[in-house]
Amino acid sequence: MQIFTCPFCGPRDETEFHFAAEAGKKRPIPAETVTDDEWAEYLYMNSASRGKAQEVWLHVTCGEFFLMTRDTVTRDVTAVTSLPGRNA
Questions:
Q1: What domains, with CATH codes, occur in the chain?
Q2: Fewest CB within a 10 Å sphere: which of 21, 42, 48, 54?
Q3: A single Pfam family, by name (predicted)?
Q4: Handedness of CA 1, 8, 54, 24 (dihedral sign)
Q5: Burial zone of 59 (CB within 10 Å; 0-12 exposed, 13-18 middle, 19+ buried)
Q6: Is this prediction's pTM over 0.90?
Q7: Tell me, what's the pLDDT at 43?
Q8: Residue 6 — φ and ψ, nearest 5°?
Q9: What rounded mean pLDDT belongs to the chain?
Q10: Alpha carbons 65 and 59: distance in angstroms, whole number
Q11: How many CB atoms within 10 Å of residue 42?
């Protein structure tokens, strides 16, 4: 079991967290011109790169989203920060 740190609640068991998205993905706009293929690409395709990754995670217990920087190979978490506009 791995321990993740919620910036709002502190260290918690990994089972309390849910991966939400890769950080920095740009939502296709304007919505009325986005094709089904573009929308599917945005929703389902991730780069899944090896090494350092910045991701958006949800702490299900408190309902807050936050940024996690981690190594996808070693699983080491190097930073967690609240999203802009949210104070931990």
A1: 3-82 (3.30.2270.10)
A2: 48
A3: SoxD
A4: positive
A5: buried
A6: no
A7: 87
A8: -80, 130
A9: 92
A10: 6
A11: 14
Q: What's the whole-number mean pLDDT along residues 23-36?
A: 91
Task: Tell me the per-residue pLDDT of 38-70, one tens digit each, with 9 for 90 and over.
Answer: 999 988 888 778 999 999 999 999 999 999 999
At 88 the pLDDT is 63
| Residue reference for tokens 């089972």 | 15
State residue 35's pLDDT score.
Answer: 95
Q: Which two tokens stand for residue 58?
A: 């949800």
The C-alpha R_g of the chain, in whole angstroms, comes to 15
Separation CA 29–CA 40 (nearest Å): 13
How many CB atoms neighbour CB 66 within 10 A? 23
Strands 64-71 and 17-22: unpaired
Structure tokens at 59: 């702490």
